[in-house]
Amino acid sequence: MGAGRNLFGKEPGKKEQEAFKELVKNADAGDGDAKEQLRQMIKSDETRQGERLARMRIEIYTQAAYQGDLQAQYWLGISYARLLDKEASLEWLTGPAKKGHVKAMKAIAKGYGPKGVYGYRKDEQRFWILKAAEAGDARSQADMGWYYAARNERISRQWFKKSALQDCPAGWLGLGQSFYNEALQDYERQDIARREKQLLRAEKCFLEALACTQKASESADICHALGMLYESALDKEGCAQRAVYFYYRAFRKGGKQEDFAAFMRVRDKNGLVTKESDIQAWEEEIFGNGKAEEKAKK
Question: What predicted TM-score, i.e. pTM, was given to this entire model?
Answer without folding.
Answer: 0.85
